Amino acid sequence: ALVRGYDPAQDFGEARLAEGGAAITLSGNAWKSVALPAPSGSATWLSFDLASGDAGEILGVALDDDGALSLDKLIQLGGSERFAAVNDDFLDFAPGAAIRSYAIPVGALTPAGQDRLVFVADDDADGSGTATFADVLLSEAPPGRVDGAARAARAYDAAGQDRGTATPGEGGRE
Fold first, then answer.
1. Measured distance CA(168)–CA(103) in Å, rounded
2. Number of C-alpha atoms within 13 angstroms, CB side, residue 85?
3. Helix boundaries (H) for the chain
4. Most exposed among 34, 49, 130, 174, judged by the fewest C-beta atoms under 10 Å?
């Protein structure tokens, strides 16, 4: 995946992809984006594992379609700054704690048709913020967990035996 700077007025940090692209680590004051394989829909879910020793001012994710900073599309997970326009429904990350898994119904929170996934580790005060987003998965169904890794929930038997539903925990959290 090609990682690009998201907003030139904000992005002064670095991004490092793990071997095979299984994780992206941001440091400094980083706002980075990755093109989606297809535009988001109203049923799109984003799941990932997050680790950070210093959440900085804003730790979050967003879906975007224009490359310009849009706080109303940002889902804040942690950090010391607060903005009225930011979605803070998932603002519960404690830096230095264990790895935190998220499952977020981004399609219900942002307009359909977004074509970029944005990762944010904003810390323009001193640049010490870091974050690692691992096992990132976009799906058109609520994700589940298998052996600690995110997996999209799909019908097992398309011939008609699978008539049940699967629902993640409260607010998409485990």
1. 8
2. 8
3. 106-109
4. 174
CB atoms within 10 A of CB 165: 8
Looking up tokens 């959290």 gives 173
Residue 45 · residue 140 · CB < 8 Å: yes
H/E stretch holding 82: none
* DSSP reduced 3-state for 54: strand
CA dist 96 to 31, 42, 62, Å? Answer: 21, 33, 23
> What are the pLDDT tens digits along the chain (174 aa)?
689 998 888 889 999 999 888 899 999 899 999 999 999 999 999 999 999 998 899 999 999 998 888 889 999 999 999 988 899 999 999 887 779 999 999 999 999 999 999 999 999 889 888 999 999 999 998 876 544 444 444 444 444 555 555 555 554 444
Q: Find all residues with CB under 8 Å of 149, minimum gap 6, and list them.
A: 135
To the question of pTM greater than 0.90 for the whole model, the response is no
Distances (CA, A) of 156 to 44, 142, 160, 161: 20, 15, 9, 8
Q: What are the DSSP E strand ranges found in 66-147?
A: 74-78, 100-104, 116-122, 130-139, 143-146
